[in-house]
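Figure S4 source data
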Amino acid sequence: MSGIDDLPPLRQVIDEHGLSARKSLGQNFLLDLNLTARIARVAGDLSGCDVLEVGPGPGGLTRGLLASGARRVLAVEKDARCIPALQQIAAAYPGRLEVIHGDALEVDVLAHLSGDVRVVANLPYNIGTELLVRWLTPPEWPPFWRSLTLMFQREVAQRIVAVPGSKAYGRLAILAQWRCDVRIALSLPPEAFTPPPKVSSAVVHLTALPAPRFEADAAMLSRVVAMAFNQRRKMLRAALKGMGPDIEDHLNAAGIAPTTRAEQVPLEGFCALAQSLKGL
């Protein structure tokens, strides 16, 4: 038996159900239940929470979340092979685990969640960034979730927490830090996974702020930041010329020198620029 519950060890579960990780699904399984329990603890007290987990695979993190006291877990899994293993976990934790077989990019999770919601997931590498951007850019703020505790490739994690002037600073840093407190909570080597990926991984914890740090039109901010960092080596007056012939006036109004490059502009500057351009 495992150390956190009465269910079989994960390696046994994988063998019984033939759950070899598939590269096409971005799968890398965490088999150390002590480690999955540690990730669950990063998310904080889950006893009164609904937890959304995307890509649970054989259920290592799922078990960590339930064993740590999560009120309820909604697990969305695309790989049909994993469903029987997850249903065994559901049987061991009656009424606390709901499993949905589907694509997380298409499933309406809001119909299955209520109250205080946290998202905790070892995200499949091939959809992790897209899901994060969706969660950071909802139609209304605050979002449906209170916090995100997510596993990424370390390079992606560093982009989320990056500061102006660094090579990692870009769109993800702006979108995340505009509306959240962000930090890297854990770093994991490749050998922590099966199969080991070619890169290190990290767990990022994002806590939603009640309101954005600076006033800005969300759609315009996303548009400006995407355009600015798409040509990050160019001066902003050139990178943003598609915004209109008077872009230099808007840059000056936002307190940004037109000759500045995107990676040198702090969050507050991009927000001021988005406000100046609002309505275009």
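Figure S5 source data
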Amino acid sequence: MDLDKIIERKNTDCLKFDAVVRRGYPECILPLWVADMDFPAAPPILAALQKRIAHGVFGYSEPDPNRFFPVLERWFRERHNWQIQKDWLIQTPGVVFALAMAVKAFTNPGDAVLIQQPVYYPFSEVILDNGRRRVSSDLILKDGRYDIDFTDLERKIVENKVKLFLLCSPHNPVGRVWTRKELETVAAICHKNNVIVVADEIHEDFVWTERPHIPYASLGEAFAQQAVICTAPSKTFNLAGLQVSNIFIPDYGLRRRFHHEINAAGYSQLNTLGLIACEAAYQYGAPWLEEVKQYLCGNINFTKAFLQQHIPQIRLVEPEGTYLLWLDCRGLGLANTELEDLIIKKAGLWLDSGAIFGASGKGFQRINIACPRSVLQEALERMQKAIG
């Protein structure tokens, strides 16, 4: 694969590029915001899609579980040391959709739902837009690393009678891959206080440390029975537009309540081509993924070296996972509006403002480095020139 090759994505209804003007940005801006990759999908996935397209009929589709499930089972067992079961699986058109269904299934209007800001902003949207109350136990940044304040976490749960916790693991945007001890502490607190945990594990296949990602439901049977695990091939294999996610709910009662909300939303069969791509990805996509991960590691190291050499005022929060880097721009001494002006108007970049991830994200920017290195270099050089 030639991952240095720039593939023209404009005029393909691409959100990253074609929505620039519609969203109020100048046409010449360089976008590195939305969490997809600029790399083509794995050849086996494309071959499977082409074969299905050649058939020419695209009716309602459901995968044969006797063929489809073993592919998923092998992936999670071999990659994440987690043994899933067939009856746990519910498929949805996306993880954010699943988060919204969980909020509706396991809480009532006015109930408190816990998150850990700065965190992926749709977490707040699915809470507030469904009439629930958002409570945040903010992560603590110390010496360039984010940690959980477990005392504050439990206090917020007790004081607000929290029923549901949306856990981001690996964490977007701060890039933490939670340790087993951290996850077990969280799980013990939630189990003690009867809090259901919905773990968004969509970035699970991008881990840059020797320490692996640990699926929340693998911590123990008692914890798994109070958990909803959200996974998808969309980030791992760059298939976001095909709208398929695999949600695992070990407890029958929770699974039934979750499925009821999906039915109430009027959703049934998934995208036919998404199902084809999902199966091909998990069955044949591993070599492609390893090549992409190696390239992304190079992009991370390139970014780190560039900032240290040319823009030392901006510090990279060391990423343990994801291809979304969290830039600490507070060393520039700018107010949040001034920082936005610098990034957008002076540098001509469309990144994700840290402020949209919560108040604790002000002064930060999130940048997507899943692109050809020349594009990343241009973005960083634009930033360097704008800062002067």
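The domain at 57-284 is CATH 3.40.640.10 (Aspartate Aminotransferase; domain 2). The two ends are 36 Å apart (CA to CA).
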